[in-house]
Amino acid sequence: MLMPTNSIMSRAEKIFNGEIIADENDPLNRYNKDWSLVQNTRTKLSLRRSWVWHDGKKGYMNIVYTACHYDGTGDLVSGSWNVDSKWHIEKRNGKWEVVDIDELA
Fold first, then answer.
1. How many domains are contained in the chain?
2. CB contact set of 92 (below 8 Å; sequence gap of 6+)
3. DSSP secondary structure code for residue 24 in this structure
4. Which of 23, 32, 33, 40 has the smallest number of Cβ neighbours within 10 A?
């Protein structure tokens, strides 16, 4: 059950790290990196999928993440630690997508 959702995890990691930006209608946009800091920061990310349940059309992923952003001198500028969240997923046009997020912390 984890393999079909690998694309979601890969995309989320890129969003957290500031490699891509999720648009405003995408639930993952809450993880967009502050682009005013991108050039001068690095992100240390732990993104873990605890479990996945789906029926082939829709389902849930339980995600636990820690994201810390450090400036050019190595000082912590922002972070979130061990955040437990439930990502609601749906298969649309053959591709799994996050359609809603509940942060459980």
1. 1
2. none
3. T
4. 23
